[in-house]
Amino acid sequence: MRRFVIERDLPKIGDAGPEELKGAAKTSNDAIAKVGSVLWEHSYVTADKTFCIYQAEDEEAIRQHAAVSGFPATKITEILREISPATAD
Question: By the 8 A CB rule, do 6 and 62 touch?
Answer without folding.
Answer: yes
